TrEMBL record:
Domain DNA helicase Pif1-like DEAD-box helicase residue range list: 1-110
One biological process term in Gene Ontology: DNA recombination
This protein's UniProt keywords: ATP-binding, DNA damage, DNA recombination, DNA repair, Helicase, Hydrolase, Nucleotide-binding
Organism: Linum tenue
UniProt-recorded name of the protein: ATP-dependent DNA helicase
A Pfam family: PIF1
Highest taxon of the lineage: Eukaryota
InterPro entries in alphabetical order: DNA_helicase_pif1-like_DEAD (IPR010285), P-loop_NTPase (IPR027417), Pif1-like_2B_dom (IPR049163)
Amino acid sequence: MIHRLSFEEVDRALCDIMSIPFKGPDYRPFGGKVVLLGGDFRQTLPVIPDAGREDSVDSSLTRSYLWNFCMVLHLSQNMRLLPNSINEEPFFDGMSFAEWTLNVGNGSIPGRSFHVNQPADWIEIPTQLLIEPSDDCLSTIAAVVYDAFAENYYSISYLAERSIVTPTNQNVLELNDHMLAMVPGSVRSYFSCDTVHSDSNDAAAISSEYPTEFLNSLSFNGYPDHQIDLKVFTPIILLRNLNPSIGLCNGTRMMVVYLGHYVIRAIIMGGTFDGKTVAIPRIVLSINDYRWPFVLKRRQFPVRLCYAMAINKSQRQTLQHVGVYLLKPVFSHGQLYVAISRVKSPAGLHFLILNEAGIPSNYTRSIVYPETFSELEESATTALG
């Protein structure tokens, strides 16, 4: 979900372009232009470092002055689930899979607490979705989601319809490394060029205090790492908008077909540009992280392996087979709902859950902030005309 401040900046810009006053009786949202926004408030909220519940909820569009000008329209048909998953016999506790998924997103599934002073937000996952863990959890979930991998590792259709999702980037890295080792062929490693941005305060002093080796060790959410290991036929996900007109958008999944020095060639998996071969160059990314007193410039291919991906990154994906890897529970609003709602049918959804003691469990956290979407049923209170 996009932070409400981003919408408000667009509103101010369009008002300025259209010469419409930002305040007063002549104000028109977005400069008088009709803007169509699509999304699901059950999904994750904008990521705000070290933010609490109140700050996260406050970042939602429903807390913006623009919300008073919005008219809420609801889909009348589920566009992701297959028809037999919508109209099926009761899936769990008298609910169909579609109803159960929506109830998870709405926070209306009865939960329980396992410790004193712990919120009662631990819900039961249906037994038919559970994977029985072994001593090697990585191999267990990989074998279920990527069954017959040795015969299909190079198949675009096979890779396009499956992924493992997990809350933490550390688990994502472990899963991707595990899958990469199973692909035949040699690894090609790409290393970034990292420098302190010249516009940073005291850039020269900072450069001497933070050597290149330290800059290389830094990892950031949503940015490529210093070292990217790839093989031909591995799936990757794009981390930046490069050229939307040919399908190179943030979140596009592709299969690598050529690993060159200056470009990576890949075939787009899914969507309007399914099957299109594209070239991905290195680009310079500016990373401004509040933890460090400088802006980092990283020149690297804007991609990551995506046999597994973070739950937040999996939004907008529609898949046939999804493994939800929960060695630790989710930690923010909507994450469990996002993980569940990636699939077209419950037959393709698999959970591997461990509790705090590392013991297999059929309970996991489902964090929902109902106040985020409590106003969705309200009509616009201000006319657009």
